[in-house]
Design a protein that fits this description.
The chain is mainly alpha-helical. The protein has eight helices and no strands. It is elongated and about 45 Å long. 22% of the residues are buried.
């Protein structure tokens, strides 16, 4: 099995960092792992139990939640750092997964950790 595929699942790996550093699609991750799109999607779902994009968004939003509560950095900067190049898309995904806007989350939990 391609070792790059296994590195995608390790958040500390350089492969994972390359995949999450931009607005990635499964095609980008498959290319980084040197495998076909269909094999990557199948393998990823087998290992994680969920589609690549769902997993990636949960990872990014978890990182954003941490940054929102621990820093005073602008939300636009945080959204870009975690891989969302459009702040509006970041807000939609954040609200879907967390149940509130990034600003609402920051106001409620900022520096309470």
């Amino acid at each position: 099995m391609n070792s790059l595929l296994f590195n995608v699942f390790n958040p500390s790996s350089n492969t994972w960092k390359r995949v999450t550093a931009k607005e990635s699609k499964y095609e980008d991750a498959a290319r980084v792992c040197a495998t076909s799109n269909s094999h990557f999607m199948y393998f990823f779902r087998q290992v994680t139990g969920q589609p690549f994009l769902a997993y990636l968004n949960q990872f990014r939003i978890a990182k954003a939640r941490s940054l929102l509560t621990a820093t005073d950095r602008p939300i636009s900067e945080i959204s870009q750092e975690v891989g969302f190049w459009a702040q509006s898309h970041f807000g939609v995904v954040f609200r879907k997964l967390v149940g509130m806007t990034p600003l609402g989350y920051r106001c409620r939990f900022h520096l309470q950790t």
